Amino acid sequence: MLASLLVVAALQATTQQVQDTSLFRALDLPAPNAYRAADGRPGPDYWQQRVDYRIGATLDPATQTISGSETIHYTNRSPMALPYLWIFLDQNICEPGSITNQLNQPPLVFEDVSFDFSCQGFAGGVTLQHLRSGGDDLRHTIYGTTMRVDLPTPLQPGGDVSLDLGWTFRIPEMGAGRMGRDGTLYEIAWWYPRMVVYDDVRGWNHDPFIGGGEFYLEYGRFDVTIELPAEYVVAATGVLQNPADVLTAAQRERLARAVRSSTPVAIITADEAGTPQTRPTRGGTRSWHFVADSVRDFAFAAAPNFRWDAVGWDGILIESLYRPGAAGWEESIRMAEQSIRYFSERLYRYPYPHATTIEGPIAGMEYPMLTFVAGTDRENLHFTLMHEFGHEWYPMVVGSNERLYPWMDEGFNMFIDIGATEDYFRGTPHGDTYAQTLVEAYPQHAIPGLEQPLSTRPVESRDLWWTAYTKPGLMLHLLRTEVLGKERFDRAFSAYTRSWAFKHPTPADFFRVMRSETGMDLDWFWRGWIYTTARLDQAVDSVTAGADGPEIHLTNRGTMVMAAEIAITFGDGARETVRLPVEMWNLGSTFVYRVKDGRGMPAAVELDPRSVYPDVERANNRWPRGS
Predict the structure, then answer these.
(1) C-alpha dihedral over 454, 458, 459, 461, to 10 degrees?
(2) Do the domains 538-623 and 46-218 match in fold?
(3) Architecture of the domain spanning 538-623
(4) pTM for the predicted model, two decimal places
């Protein structure tokens, strides 16, 4: 009996060891449920909260302040009663005692561009003047960039509550790289108290704003009025409700013409920029009124000397506003139109009435219908402008949690940037080699002992440019071109985008949609690329004469598995390319490919002849060695 038990225990231990070490073992994902289905789509009982905002704000350039009164209408669609709510006070990142200032957060370095997460010595924060509901003050506690609001009675499922807030803050020059000002130009974002997401996965997602993690917000309707000096021109999220009050008759006519035009129209010309004729009235202040539906945030920009170009595509008004001295920005409207058109045709039609980009000090940031872009050389300008517009899809439409999974928005955008760059610069060295630059970045960033998994939170990432941007972009590019094929991948990726438009997906939802749509289990792929720092090292060990013909002996020497491509050169100079699926590694780390009869012994064999993979040891990719 004892011997039998020992045998069973040994067998169980062996089975467990194989299960734990197989590179093809299943990922440990949350179980599907009524909220999130097994095929990765929203389940029959999926819910998410709704938040609507009404904001009246005044921007005072003389004192560099914004003051606002705000009503937040919060609807509880969850099955839980909520005794308290959480609100973000993002401008508190600039307080001297903030986590960011205490820890001196390092900047994000984009090759030769530094993205500063601090407020660069600026000391300030939100002054909350009142917080009420139904006329009664609400008890609240502020913790840096978050605030807990205790309700008099729990908010029941299906119930709603309105919060009335008054607040003011001084505008920093560089607000953690997300907003700021430069002389008379203001790029305003993260500027009003915003509701924290309450979802079915984590409950309250009140991770503090430190700088490295961006945002995760609920969808709703914004009704915003901004008062500021009359000489200012404003661009914002949403549709302008009072154009006759703030635009000249000529500007209104030009805008109406631009939305129907395939060639750019100058709304404010170079000669007009900064002159009194651009404004319908002089002196005093004017109010700009905007309304936006199905958005998760609101931002605006204002300056008295904008040039303003616009063009239409498929009924969408595409706009570019920039200062007269901005070099190269005359081409920005064409770049903007190409970006919106390209992404709409391949992902999901752009759902908003306008797409507007603003030139200014912020290196690159995205908000619904509005992006902030710094002026640079032509190739960098196109990349930044196009990348920020890509965010209109991820995460503005597909609302993933950037505080936890930046690879699901920054990485997705780096991936779609490849095609958009190739399209705009087709036939040039930049366009034709852009995808390869992601592979070439691997040795510099994927350093053993220093590299972190893509699943690392952004505030813990030592190389965010790699873990959130470049590596996930390369990952999806290789999944599309080398593993699944373009048609198979594109159908699945589009299905994911449509399924989670205006909703809150998690990584598990993405993985399940991709598996369901492609018919391929990809757990091995996600594990190697996202949850580990696995390294790829495929090798040609030898070529031998087998009983049924020449045999090419391949080895997977690394900790990552991938499909393979081998180029075989025969003695007569003939060349054959063979693509092998990842299932070649099902039975272990060695694989023998049998060359077809009649071809004779190969003279040379090369793995990954196009150099598309980040193989860490390319010297063993060829046989004979050194060939």
Answers:
(1) 40
(2) yes
(3) Sandwich (2.60)
(4) 0.94
**Separation CA 542–CA 605 (nearest Å):** 9
SS3 579: strand
| Residues in the chain with pLDDT values less than 70 | 1-20, 111-112, 597
Handedness of CA 425, 428, 432, 435 (dihedral sign): negative
Beta pairing partners, 346: none
Q: How far apart (Å, rounded) are the C-alpha atoms in residues 17 and 227?
A: 67
Measured in degrees and rounded to the nearest 5, phi and psi for residue 598 equal 90, -5
Q: Please name the residues in contact with 104: beta carbons below 8 A apart, sequence gap of 6 or more.
A: 118
Tell me how far apart the alpha carbons of residues 411 and 465 are, in angstroms, rounded to a whole number. Answer: 10
Distance CA 476, CA 591 (A): 26
pLDDT attached to residue 6: 54
> What pLDDT digit, counting tens, does each position of 107-125 carry?
777 766 777 888 888 999 9
Residue 303 pLDDT: 98
Using an 8 Å Cβ cutoff, are 272 and 278 in contact? yes
Give the 3-state DSSP-derived string for 326-343, with helices as H, strands as E and coil as C: CCCHHHHHHHHHHHHHHH
How far is it, in rounded angstroms, from Cα 369 to Cα 389? 8
- The topology (CATH level 3) of 424-531 is Neutral Protease; domain 2 (1.10.390)
Residues 437 and 429: their CA atoms lie apart, in Å, by 11
pLDDT at 18: 44
Question: Can you give the length of the chain in residues?
Answer: 627
Instruction: Please tell me what DSSP assigns to residue 615.
Output: B
Q: Domain ranges in the chain?
A: 46-218, 248-286+302-400, 424-531, 538-623
265-268 vs 307-313, strand pairing mode: antiparallel
Answer yes or no: CATH 2.60.40 is held by domain 46-218: yes
Quote the pLDDT of residue 20.
60
For residues 333 and 318, is the Cβ–Cβ distance under 8 A? Answer: yes
